[in-house]
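Q: Structure tokens for this one, please.
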Amino acid sequence: MEASFLDVSPGSSPTFTVIMAAHNNAPTIGQAIESVRRQTRTDWELIVVDDCSRDGTADLAQAVDDPRITVLRQTENRGPGATRNRGISLARS
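A: Here is the predicted structure, written as tokens:
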């Protein structure tokens, strides 16, 4: 398959969405995001939902320059289930 069929163009829907719930994961969030970015397919979106971290997790995730990545910040800790559900509700695939 040619790369042009795999790329997600602005306004198009990705083939799949990865939801990443994060809470105080600054030491590992970069590696987790890079593992998604290194996939052989490029037609994805990543939604990182920060569950009220206090260690800069959301800032590190937002620093990744990739238009396929969306970072959401929750203002109160809601737990992993509610955090994942928020991300799922915003998925475009």
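A few notes: The beta strands are 16-22, 44-50, 69-73. The chain has one domain: 3-89.
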